[in-house]
Amino acid sequence: MGSEKELMEAFETIIHEDFPNPQRIGCPGHEALLKLAEESGHVQRTRLLAHIRQCAPCFDELKELRGKARNQSQPHI
Length: 77
Known about the structure:
Blueprint: H1 4-18, H2 30-38, H3 45-52, H4 56-73
Helix pairs in contact: 1-4, 2-4
């Protein structure tokens, strides 16, 4: 049985192959992705996630923003 990490890696491969979107057509913008990454507010979540499932650049940006949000929320020793 696959882990969440394996599932995300497989999804990442598929989205980059099937939905590269290099011109970022229809992208919601950095602020909307930042809010989604920080999981603050609703910000038309369903519509945003539908877009991200079909846009590799937004998927990449969200992944990066979520990583940064996780790092900031962890206590620094």
